Amino acid sequence: MTTTLPAFTPEVRQRTAALYAKLKNHIPEVEWALTAPIIDEIRRLKTQKNALVLAHNYMTPDIFHGVADIVGDSLALAREAARAKADIIVMCGVHFMAETVKILNPEAKVLIADLEAGCSLADSITPEDVAGLRRRYPGAPVVTYVNTSAAVKAASDICCTSGNALQVVESLESDEVIFIPDRYLARNIARQTKKTIRIWEGACEVHEKFTPQDLDQMRHDYPGVTIMAHPECPPEVVQAADYAGSTAQMIRFVQDKHPSRVALITECSMSDNVAVQFTGIDFIRPCNLCPHMKKITLPKILDTLENESPEVTVDPQFIEPARRAIERMLAVQAG
Ligand code: 13P
Ligand code: SF4
Description:
Blueprint: H1 10-15, H2 17-23, H3 29-49, E1 51-56, H4 61-66, E2 70-72, H5 74-83, E3 88-92, H6 95-104, E4 109-111, H7 127-136, E5 142-145, H8 150-154, E6 158-160, H9 165-171, E7 176-180, H10 183-190, E8 196-199, H11 212-221, E9 226-229, H12 235-240, E10 243-244, H13 247-257, E11 261-267, H14 268-277, E12 282-284, E13 287-288, H15 298-307, H16 316-330
Parallel strand pairs: 1-2, 1-3, 3-4, 5-6, 5-7, 7-8, 9-10, 9-11, 11-12, 11-13
Helix pairs in contact: 3-15, 5-6
This protein binds 1,3-dihydroxyacetonephosphate and iron/sulfur cluster.
């Protein structure tokens, strides 16, 4: 780790003043004295090293608003990764997201602040499991949610994200589709298509905790609330919500409809980040923390950029087939 953290000098205060004006309702002043110098130093290193910081919508506001060059859902980050021109890309998100960056941009040095930032969905399935499903459902194409390892993507026909899953499934000719690994996303998609969906029983440990009773309670406690749920939630939760979509689609809904009171049924930092942007909206914050996303912190990002480590690599045998599955997804008009 970095031995000495940079100091909160008057120059740093001045350079970060506009950012603090935005974040002051979310970060106390005492904490800002420690946070601002780290943000300032990361920004300096980004320029010096021609580095780009991509951040998922679940990063904390100091990362999301302070150091990210591009923020978004998995689909947007994959698209940006494919066109990025930087020498270094720091992926502030979980490991499968960093692997996707490396697959789409193999020339760049891809860094992640913590190699242990995993995902319960990615951990739920292996390439051998995919081979088993193909034997069980011969001829059915495999649609793989991007929350999977590079090896599993490489064993798939096409990828999808929560932002384009239905369009990807509908783009296939086959009436039977193997959809892996999220059982809830698969069931939510199955309700919207005539195709037969073969399901793998993986789940997101964050979204599966929400229940329809949580939503009933919210409607009781906060009259008029507009409830939006991520499609990794169980179908009963999605059905009880007013809108379901990827993290970016939820943000677009808030932007377009400007509901006065909102509850985002998803990871905690989402509401914090969106609340910074939409100050007039009352955000109810029922949330579950993703322990993997929360492994990525500002001091670790600084350390990673300084030392250009840990680097994310992908076994060369998986790069081409995984890229084919992701690029096939990116060619489907959606998102
Ligand atoms: P999005 O693609 O909707 O941002 O979701 C990624 C994720 O990991 C949700 O848990
Ligand atoms: Fe994986 Fe769920 Fe965390 Fe997203 S929120 S990274 S799906 S464990």
